[in-house]
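Hi there. Long-time user, first ticket. I'm pasting a complex I've been working with (about 684 residues overall). I'd like to know whether the download I got is complete or cut off, because the file seemed smaller than I expected. Thanks.
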Amino acid sequence: MARVHRPECGYAARMADARVSRWCRAIALVLSVSITATGGAQMAEPPALGDIVVAVEYARLITGFSQHAPQADAVLVRNIRKLIEARVLTRPLAEVERDAAGRGLLARAREQQSRYDFGIPDNLTDVIDTIVMIVNGEMREPLGRAASEVELARIRAPFDQLADVQLAASMSKSARALERYERMYGPGSVQLNLVETGLNYAAQWLPGFGVDKEHGPLPLELVSSWSPMYLTYAAGHAEAVSVFEAGVRSYIFRSDWGRSGGLRSILKPGHVTAGVAVAPEGDAVMRNPFTSASRMGVFFAYGTIKVAWVGSGDDSRFLLSREMRIIPLVF
Amino acid sequence: MPGHLVLHGQLYGLVSEGCTGLAGRRRDSFAGMPRPPQSIDWPDRDALLLVHGVGNAAPGHYERLEGSIRSLLGSDADQFAIYTLYYDEIHDWMRAKVRLDEVVGVLAKALRAEMGDEDAAAVAELLGDLVTPAFHAPSRVGIREVLLAQIKQIVRDGLRAGVGIWSQRISIISHSLGCLHSYEALHAAAKEPQHALRPLSNGVTFRNAIFIASPIQLVRSAAAGMRTLMPYKEDFAVLARGSLSIPVQASVTGYSERSVRRWISLTGALDPLGGYLMRRRIAGAFMDVPGQETVIDKQDGLAQAGFSDLMSFLREILVSGDTTTGITARNPHSWQGYIDRNADMLRAWLTHA
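Hi, the file is complete. Here it is re-exported in full:
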């Protein structure tokens, strides 16, 4: 078996081809008889890759595809052989999508590879894609002429089922991407002031910022704002302190985080932020933080709750605040 | 401000936030898509998607337009599933995120323009719709994602109704800025495997893509000098090097298939956003895609084609901020006007092979 299926052996390849061709012709004959006699063949439930192979072989037969488009037919036969040799024909079409994500079909084929020494193509998804492309391309017109309406519906059925599986997977991905848009730009996201708008426009060219066409927005956002509502406790009483913050916010795209309202919004917020904090000399509100006596430190925000540590020695302060945008456009 | 009052206020805010959860108030769930794609039971094999331009389209917005389309389809109307796309929520999010309304209001005051809050909001709407897709890649890609999600749903609805992919007859009619988003979506559909909408790999093709008053070439020309300022431009099909094109997919065998069977550009002789200025074609503003069918609506009787009429039409668009329902049918850019004046042609495109 191993000798026969070794792809580099010309004789073995021809033998494999001959076996494949006889097998497919037999199935195509059975299918054509059943379609003609009963007006419809029973497809395996759930639909499997083998249904595609059978449909393609029948389509080749009734269109005389090998004479009509010999080059495309050669590519088609080569790829069908790869599918047959990979022993994946009984796998459900639903697993084709999981294969594209690296699980399911290809994993199963590789398990068998280690046992039977088959040549599993690395690009199993590409093999299926090539077969489908030729059917939708070169074979479409001749098939439309050669097949009756019933035959065409039966031949097309597994392809339509595969398309539906692929669309469903794609829509799931779209939904996740759009959830990210809502998390980052929707009503629950943090508004940007003018400076942040400009900074984040420029940051779109940086890794981690901007957008990825498959997954949606990337999670990072630059922060540059002046927060007048930090609180500290010193000399026996609470004081409000203005702090300038510059840093990076990262949105959390996990589905059970970032829900608005309630305790969960505090425990599992939609974003975290960290960066540099600059406080003015002395504990006061609305004072310029950028002087020679400024106190530098760090801040961290867990959702809307912010803490900061600035200064050193007697002048150091632990500060607490909430994310609030008070003066439009600026803070 | 006394620190203890601020502290009490902050603590109160935190505690009340926690208590509302404990009291069992319904929390907003994470909605997923801004608005789920429309799903319709197909009566037959035809589906039509309407994609609006600038403006705040919401459910109900397309009613009159949809009625006109059903009317022009006549007895064939019953075989169409007509979908309407709403993507303006993404624009609204971006506007709110950067507080664009406030920016425009401040600018207007600074320029001493007499612009009330409503006008400022309309201008912000227009600016947001026009500017953000060009300079903010997440806006552009997000709207494209919404449009593609709707197209995927349309195809799945057809499959659910028993109409195989080869038998589905899907048309898209876009207007104004909607043309840009449709162009982007169609190119992504034909090129990107993750959307499962390619003509050869997935068998999905569109019967008609009808672009009404398309500003695509205008955007290309305006953006030509600003390419370096546009992020993620390698993914911006409108700005692709070379000419505009009808999307195709090529197979490993060298065979290629167009994604759209019939690509139509319908614009008016008095519509500057569609590439005509007072009945003269403007080369840098008129969308001319190789292989497209071009129809010029003469727009006779709409205006004197003078400068003052032109300014009046543009001002109406600017102030309304909505080209679907916010401008009169006599405005050369009006979608309703185009549908009403070109009913026979639209019917022929939608119902004939």
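A couple of notes from our side: The first helix of chain A runs from residue 2 to 5. Chain A touches chain B through 80 residues (CB under 8 Å).
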